[in-house]
C-alpha cells in the first residue's frame, strides 16, 4: 500500500486551523474571468502551494490564463517544471524554443491551437502563447511541481535591479545603447514588471 503524507506549508498553519478539514483541500475562484486590461492583454490565476496550501508536498500546480484578442503570455520559462497547456476557448499560437543545439541553432516548436488542443512545454525552455483569434481565449496550464518557478525573459533583461550594464545588453543583442535605453523605459512605465510570479 502507498502511504501519502499531507504537509501544509508553515505560513498557512494559522489559516488552516480555522478551516474545517474538508475546506483545506478546496479552492474557489478558478472559474472567474480574468481582467486582461493591461499592456500584455493577459491575466493568470495561479493555483500553487502558495495560493492553495493543500498542494504542499503533492508536486502539482495549475493555472488559468485569460487572453484578450492579441493577448500575449510573454516569453518565459519554468526552471522547476514542465508545463501542459489545454485550450478551453479561442485560438492560440503556442511555442517553445530549443536553444544551443549541437549544430549551434535555436529551433522554435510551435502550433496553432484550437479548443480542446493540448501542447507541452519542456522544463526550463523559453515558451509563450499568443491569442491569434479575434475573441477572448482561455487556457488551463498544469505543472509537475507545486512551485514551478518563473523567469520572464524581457523583465529579467530590462527591469532587473540593479540594472544589467548597458555594455552587456548592447553586445548580447547587437544593438546600440539608444535601443537598450528605449527598451528599459518601456518596462519602467508599462507596469509589465508588476506581474506576479510562480514561486
From TrEMBL:
Membership in a protein family: Belongs to the germin family.
Main location as per UniProt: secreted
All residue ranges annotated as the Cupin type-1 domain in the record: 31-181
Keyword Kinase applies: no
Keywords, sorted A to Z: Apoplast, Disulfide bond, Manganese, Metal-binding, Secreted
Protein name: Germin-like protein
Database matches in Pfam families: Cupin_1
InterPro entries xref list: Cupin_1 (IPR006045), Germin (IPR001929), Germin_Mn-BS (IPR019780), RmlC-like_jellyroll (IPR014710), RmlC_Cupin_sf (IPR011051)
GO MF annotations, alphabetized: manganese ion binding
Subcellular location: Secreted, Extracellular space, Apoplast
GO cellular component: apoplast
Binding site for Mn(2+): 76, 78, 83, 127
Annotated positions binding oxalate: 73, 78, 83
SUPFAM superfamilies, sorted: RmlC-like cupins (SSF51182)
Source taxon at top rank: Eukaryota
Coiled-coil parts of chain: none
Keyword match Disulfide bond: yes
Amino acid at each position: 500500500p502507498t502511504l501519502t503524507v499531507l504537509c501544509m506549508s508553515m505560513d498557512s498553519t494559522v489559516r488552516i486551523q480555522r478551516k474545517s478539514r474538508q475546506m483545506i483541500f478546496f479552492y474557489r475562484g478558478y472559474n472567474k474571468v480574468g481582467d486582461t486590461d493591461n499592456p500584455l492583454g493577459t491575466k493568470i490565476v495561479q493555483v500553487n502551494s502558495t495560493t492553495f496550501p493543500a498542494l504542499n508536498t503533492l508536486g502539482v500546480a495549475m493555472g488559468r490564463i485569460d487572453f484578450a484578442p492579441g493577448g500575449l503570455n510573454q516569453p518565459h520559462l519554468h526552471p522547476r517544471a514542465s508545463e501542459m497547456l489545454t485550450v478551453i476557448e479561442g485560438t492560440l499560437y503556442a511555442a517553445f524554443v530549443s536553444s544551443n543545439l549541437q549544430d549551434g541553432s535555436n529551433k522554435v516548436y510551435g502550433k496553432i491551437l484550437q479548443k480542446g488542443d493540448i501542447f507541452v512545454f519542456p522544463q526550463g525552455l523559453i515558451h509563450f502563447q499568443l491569442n491569434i483569434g479575434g475573441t477572448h481565449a482561455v487556457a488551463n496550464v498544469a505543472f509537475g511541481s507545486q512551485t514551478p518557478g518563473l523567469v520572464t525573459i524581457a523583465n529579467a533583461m530590462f527591469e532587473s535591479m540593479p540594472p544589467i550594464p548597458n555594455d552587456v545588453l548592447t553586445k548580447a543583442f547587437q544593438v546600440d545603447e539608444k535601443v537598450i535605453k528605449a527598451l528599459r523605459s518601456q518596462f519602467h512605465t508599462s507596469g509589465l514588471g508588476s506581474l506576479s510570479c510562480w514561486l
